[in-house]
Amino acid sequence: MSQQDVEGLDVERIRADFPILEREVDGKQVVYLDNAATTHTPEPVVEAMSDYYRRYNANVHRGIHHLSQEASVAYEDAHDRVAEFVGASGGREELVFTKNTTESENLIAYSWGLSELGPGDEVVLTEMEHHASLVTWQQIAKRAGADVKYVRVDDTGRLDMDHARECITDDTAMVSVVHVSNTLGTVNPVSELADIAHDHDAYIFVDGAQAVPTRPVDVEAIDADFYAFSGHKMVGPTGIGCLYGKADILEDLEPYHYGGGMIRKVTFEDSTWGDVPWKFEPGTPPIAEAVGLHAAVDYLEDIGMERVRAREEALTEYAYDRLAAEDDVEIYGPEPGPERGGLVSFNLEGVHAHDLTSILNDHAVAIRAGDHCTQPLHDKLGVAASARASFYVYNTRAEIDALVEALEDARTLFA
Amino acid sequence: MGLGSDMYRQQILDHYKNPRNYGELEDPTFSHVGENPMCGDEIRMDIRLADDGETIENVAFSGDGCAISQASASMLSTKLAGKTVDELLEMDRDDVIDMLGVDISPMRVKCAVLAEKVAQDGAEIYRGELDKEKTTTTED
Ligand SMILES: Cc1ncc(COP(=O)(O)O)c(C=O)c1O
Hints:
The complex is a heterodimer. Chain A is α/β, with parallel strands linked by helices. Chain A folds into 2 domains: 3-39 and 304-414, Aspartate Aminotransferase, domain 1 (Alpha-Beta Complex); 46-302, Type I PLP-dependent aspartate aminotransferase-like (Major domain) (Aspartate Aminotransferase, domain 2, 3-Layer(aba) Sandwich). Chain A has 15 helices and 17 strands. In chain A, helix 4 (66-85) packs across helix 11 (287-303), helix 5 packs parallel to helix 6 and helix 13 crosses helix 15 (397-414). By secondary structure, chain B is α+β, with helices and mostly antiparallel strands. In chain B, a hairpin with a 4-residue loop joins strand 1 (30-36) and strand 2. Classes of the chains: A alpha/beta, B alpha+beta. Bound molecules: pyridoxal-5'-phosphate. Residues 36, 100-102, 130, 132, 178, 182, 207, 209-210, 230, 241, 373 of chain A line the site of pyridoxal-5'-phosphate. Chain B: It comes from Natribaculum luteum.
């Protein structure tokens, strides 16, 4: 079987939708392997957004005039479309637009956490949380006087589920876990964790920033109470993210941002709130971005998320095997397979990750170096930084070859 | 060629692989530690002043991190002996980049200036012009 049959994808056709992939720097075509940071944007998404600005740009919710109606319908429909994409049957009543995953975490931490958490309560996180969730819950717990516990990551880069069962107790009020780790690539057993949390009457918040772009996600099958992700990591625009929440929970929750567009009735003394999701979206929202995210979801569904997942897995296995074949490369996280997402973090012996990335940049190979917003996890791994290559549907094996071959240059310089 | 290889000219690699004045002084007049959170670089600078309380007599640095931050600290350590504290405080990022003698890509300037900032903050704390608890980072 040819490569195309295995993954059922016409990669060349997909690449043609992303003109930025042709971009050259210093005469070399950029090899973009930094998709976990942000993905590129295909023509249909750019088109949908410029069509909005060209034809029906207007503020939403408050206009009676025609353009405002068109913009409002498009903005509201985008909620339903994205909700459907992640299996939220409640549509817009379960899907709030935010700025990004980070804001989605903060929304729940502030509106639910600050009022519901108190001394004696526990928030359970994992050692592989992104700072978006780790710092947010750490700080909110501190303000509320609640404790934070971290589920251990074992030597294979997976969560120690026995430890998870120990950590999550009747004192636990919230479990916040990353679905796919942006550093280790680990795909965590989130629905099992949801069961454990619910057995103890705790909520579970799942950080899906790396999951929704790379695999089919069904928030109801997971039984997540909250689920967050970002538009810019799933071929959508920057400036828009999503918070899924179960309808009955969001219904009872107080907003943490106030302003116009979210209210039912306002007097000098008090205000009452509009329906979900509007009560969580005060002020002029990201309208063009919502239109773009709608188009992004259509684009991904056209390809098929199962195919996206298969492609990610195949590229990751290829990259992992090629890097693992080098004696001086140390790779972090589990072996390739269904339990690993589409990224590989590694270090080249004797070369600091930032130096390595600068040298790869000369070859127009774009990867990330640093702690990837998982500093405590890097402390645990015993390294200050790592290099990370992350893949998306449009990447090719030839691009991974370019990465591996460019390592030689770093070796020569630093020998 | 892009900025990357230009950055890794012989002189920088030489100072990275064979750092000068690496270690700690037995009797520093002041010492200070700082970090660059982006790269996870950490540098400690030990400085001993002559009896006049003004002239830098001896310098040592320690820490670890990327080649740019470590080479910059090594080169700075060789440059500082004989200078006065005022001269140290007058240095700016251009002086450091001149000293390195290569183009530093914008995202890596923080690595390049870390050692200089640590030495300067250390000197200001010594003179009582900065809070003792001041932590030096090149984040801001
Ligand atoms: C796992 C994970 N969580 C959260 C985030 C934060 O996403 P954003 O910066 O879009 O808020 C990221 C992205 O960097 C991520 O990889």
